[in-house]
Description:
single chain, alpha/beta, 11 strands, globular
Amino acid sequence: MKFGVVVFPGSNCDRDMIHALKNDLDQEVITLWHKDKDLSMFETSDCIVLPGGFSFGDYLRCGAIARFSPMMQSVIEFANKGGKVFGVCNGFQILCESGLLPGVLLQNAQMKFNCKNVFLRGSGEYSNEVFKIPVAHGEGRYFVKEEELEEIEKNHQVLYSYCNEKGEVHIDHSPNGSINSIAGITNKERTVFGMMPHPERACNPALGNIDGRKIFKELFSIN
């Protein structure tokens, strides 16, 4: 399995993502510039990653400009063919802006930037344990209309929810006030994944936390 990491102007977590995938998880990684278009080196069994950061300075809305980058047109086509796509933080925002995932990411309910470790509990096939993963965002409050939320939950599209150390999900444990404490979702086909927390920042033992490795392994069946 190959991973392609897209770099936009303002990306600041691309190096973290590349290091985690290549050095900590021993995966093949190809860096992709946002103005390029070629994804011919990737099969649908591979994965394109949209990293965190502040693409295009977060002007207009987070991810709104990056969504129109030439590479994103190719990523959308890749996803529509069944290729895997993974967006973290700003990457999640770009996926929602591009329509590859439902919903929007709004300003945190606390009206301030949050940077800290949080706890996540998986849903469905990913519900076997609680993970400690860092967040770093000012606009991470996931929101969808009530009818869309019902559809997402009916289709088991919620990947991760904010919780406490015991795995108890409650709005008080959310760093941003996301609806139903949602931290990450997938599309109906379970090929496009988005989450606000940063698993790539929890992959190296030097950081005192390797829970992020478990998330990559669960989502992409990495050995």
